[in-house]
């Protein structure tokens, strides 16, 4: 009766069950009550759903490849992720297919199509919708990289909120700054959302007024230059800025110096990631160091474990430690490069 174009997610909604339950019924695996099984089969029959039979191919490791899904590949952050992920995949002689969703009209559909050509998928947090993650997880092994996935989907990440809070506390408590602004768009990625939350958390912990809305810009150096113009136009400019990443912070340094001001004397600037250039600019950038390559390598290892049917030994998730790297751009003495670490924990 149906068109045959319904997705597993739509069948789950019609049957009043989860995507995983539809997958178990259509593949004949797992424990499902007889009443639930009949309800799902009725929905499948009435609407002409044709499930993907990818599970059988995965058991035979037919593809010998895994997929890595990013929004785009610009900048050193993505380069580090790719190198870390591929270095681990190479050990098992598994090739890596990369899909960039940026500027694609139907990125979710592209990712689902890619799932037919790989044995598992690693998806950068926030790249595709949670519903699509659930649909993919019903088809093949999926791990979320640098973000949280839906319930039951493994994830590997850092605690962005705690790291941003530690950085902000350093500026508020150790330097006595009171007018700080956050540079980045919390609606643009889960990482920035968490860092904005940590920025606000530090103000609450010190019983300070909550900061005003962030300066919403992207995550590349030109965005930081633009943000500097916005900051310096303020009637009462801030004493410091907490940028969502290092690339934005480096652009901020350029924009501030281009307007004849100095960092940190006139404006404190900090970043996040600790890319190579952070230690090489003048003044060197105070930032948060996250183990980007290790994050990606651990994601690849976890994905390969699950794809090989070894999910019993695989961690459901892991939160990696970060380090607060204190350098000259926050006002600490030039030459300072001290660190403090947030803990590692399993989830």
What does this entry look like structurally?
With 347 residues, the protein is of the alpha/beta class. It has three domains: 8-51, lambda repressor-like DNA-binding domains (434 Repressor (Amino-terminal Domain)), CATH 1.10.260.40; 59-157 and 292-320, Rossmann fold (3-Layer(aba) Sandwich), CATH 3.40.50; 160-291 and 323-346, 3-Layer(aba) Sandwich (Rossmann fold). The protein contains twelve helices and 13 strands. The chain has helices at 8-15, 19-27, 34-47, 54-59, 76-91, 107-114, 130-137, 160-174, 190-205, 221-232, 246-258, 292-307, and strands spanning 65-70, 95-100, 121-124, 142-145, 155-158, 180-183, 240-243, 268-270, 287-289, 317-320, 323-326, 338-341, 345-346. Strand 7, helix 11 and strand 8 form a beta-alpha-beta unit. Helix 1 (8-15) packs across helix 3 (34-47), helix 5 (76-91) packs parallel to helix 12 and helix 10 (221-232) crosses helix 11. The longest helix has 16 residues, at 76-91. The two termini are 44 Å apart. Mean pLDDT is 86; it is low at 53-61. Pfam families: LacI, Peripla_BP_3. Residues 6-60 form the HTH lacI-type domain. This is Transcriptional regulator, LacI family.
């Amino acid at each position: 009766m149906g068109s045959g174009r319904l997705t597993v997610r739509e069948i789950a909604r019609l049957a009043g069950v989860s995507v995983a339950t539809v997958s178990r019924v259509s593949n004949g695996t797992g424990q499902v009550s007889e009443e639930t099984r009949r309800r799902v089969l009725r929905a499948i029959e009435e609407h002409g759903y044709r499930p993907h039979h990818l599970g059988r191919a995965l058991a035979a490791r037919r593809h010998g490849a895994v997929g890595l899904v990013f929004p785009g590949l610009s900048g050193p952050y993505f380069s580090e992720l790719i190198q870390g992920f591929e270095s681990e995949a190479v050990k098992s002689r598994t090739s890596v297919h990369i899909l960039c969703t940026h500027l694609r009209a139907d990125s979710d559909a592209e990712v689902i199509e890619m799932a037919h050509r790989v044995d598992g998928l690693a998806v950068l947090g926030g790249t595709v919708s949670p519903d699509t993650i659930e649909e993919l997880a019903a088809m093949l092994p999926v791990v979320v990289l640098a973000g949280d996935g839906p319930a039951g989907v493994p994830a590997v990440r850092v605690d962005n909120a705690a790291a941003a809070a530690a950085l902000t506390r350093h500026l508020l408590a150790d330097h006595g700054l009171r007018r700080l602004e956050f540079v980045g768009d919390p609606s643009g990625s889960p990482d920035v959302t968490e860092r904005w939350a940590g920025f606000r958390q530090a103000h609450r912990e010190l019983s300070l007024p909550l900061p005003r809305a962030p300066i919403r810009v992207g995550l590349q150096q030109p965005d930081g230059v633009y943000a500097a113009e916005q900051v310096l136009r303020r009637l009462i400019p801030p004493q410091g800025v907490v940028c969502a990443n290092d690339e934005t912070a480096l652009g901020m340094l350029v924009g501030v110096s281009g307007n004849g001001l100095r960092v940190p004397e006139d404006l404190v600037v900090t970043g996040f990631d600790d890319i190579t250039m952070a230690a090489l600019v003048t003044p060197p950038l105070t930032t948060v160091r996250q183990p980007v390559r290790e994050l990606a390598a651990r994601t690849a290892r976890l994905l390969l474990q699950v794809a090989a049917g070894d999910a019993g030994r695989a961690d459901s998730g892991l939160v990696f430690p970060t380090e607060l790297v204190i350098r000259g751009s926050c006002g600490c003495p030039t030459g300072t490069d001290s660190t403090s670490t947030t803990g590692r924990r399993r989830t």
